[in-house]
Amino acid sequence: MRPDQLADLAIFAAIAADRSFTRAAKRLGVTQSALSQTMKRLEGELGFRLLSRTTRSVAPTAAGVRLLATLTPALEGLDEEIGALSQDRGAAIGTVRITTGKHAADTVLWPMLPTFMRLHPGIEVELCVDDAMTDVVAGRYDGGVRLGERLEKDMIAVPIGSPLRVAVVASPAYLDGHAAPKEPMELTGHRCIAYRDASGDLSPWSFERDGHSVTVAPGRGPVFNDANLLVAAAVEGFGVLYILEDVVAAPIADGRLTRLLEPWCERFAGYHLYYPDRQGTTAFELFKDALRASKFS
C-alpha cells in the first residue's frame, strides 16, 4: 500500500456510504472530478472495480462490498481513537523509567508515586531498584536517583528530598565490652559492621565536623549488602554500624542501639534526580515536577 492509499480508500468508503459522487464531493469539500480521478487511480492500482456507476446511481460492486466489510470498521475505529485522543490531549501519556537505590525508592520516590500515578493514569511508571550505579543512557532510563557524590558525569542533577544524616551506632552490650570512640579514627580499633556495595567495594565511612572532613577505613567485622541485616547485626552486638539515621531510628528510640560520634555526623545534601542533557518527554517532565514539589511537601 502506498502511503496515501488509505486516503483514497476513505474516499471510496464515503462515496459508497452516500451512494453519490455529488453528495460525497459536497461532504468532503472537493469536486466531483477529483473524486472520479481518485477512484480511477485506486481501481487501476487494485486491478478490480469497486463501484458500479450509472447516470442515476452509484453502488459498490461485489468486490467493493467485501472490501467495505473490513474497511468501514477500521475507519470508524480510527475516527473514534482520534476523537478520544483529542479529548484527552490535556492528559499526559507515556512511560517513565527510573533507576534508583532501595533507600531512595522507599523514602523519596514511593511517598510521591501513588499521588502521581492517580493524577496521571496515562503514564506508566517503571522503577528499577538497584544499588549499583546504572548508566541511564545505555539502560534507556529517563533518569536516575542517587546521592550527589555518586552522580554520573555529564548529567543534569536536580536536588530532591530532604538533607540526610548518618548515624554511628552500637548496642549497649557491645559498648559494655568496648570503650565508645571519641574520634572517627578510633573506629579502626573496633569491630565494624560494613556494607559491600554492588561494585564489590566496602563503603567508606565519611565524617565532617566544622568544615573538617575525615574518611575512615573501619575495623573489620561482619559484612552484608542488605540494610536489614546490617541493623540486625548491630542490635545483636556484633560491632559498630555506620548507616543513614532514619534506618535505625526505631532501635535508637527503644534503646537497642546507642548513637556515637554525633558531632561528626553533620547533615549533607540528599538525593538528586539526574538525567541526560536532552529534551525529556512530557511524562518525564511531569514526573520531575512532582518530585521537586514533593521535596517541600
Task: Give your account of this protein's structure.
It is a single chain. The protein is of the alpha/beta class and 297 residues long. It has three domains: 5-87, Orthogonal Bundle (Arc Repressor Mutant, subunit A), CATH 1.10.10; 94-162 and 270-294, Periplasmic binding protein-like II (D-Maltodextrin-Binding Protein, domain 2, 3-Layer(aba) Sandwich), CATH 3.40.190.10; 166-264, D-Maltodextrin-Binding Protein, domain 2 (3-Layer(aba) Sandwich), CATH 3.40.190. Helices cover 38% and strands 23% of the residues. It has helices at 5-18, 21-28, 32-46, 62-87, 102-119, 172-177, 227-235, 249-253, 282-294; strands spanning 51-53, 58-60, 94-100, 123-129, 143-147, 155-159, 166-170, 192-195, 205-209, 212-216, 220-224, 240-244, 258-260, 271-276. The chain has a five-stranded mixed beta sheet with strand order 4-3-5-14-6, covered by helices on one side. It has a five-stranded mixed beta sheet with strand order 11-8-12-7-13. α1 (5-18) crosses α3 (32-46) and α5 (102-119) crosses α9. The longest helix is centred in the first third of the chain and has 26 residues, at 62-87. The chain is rod-shaped and about 110 Å long.
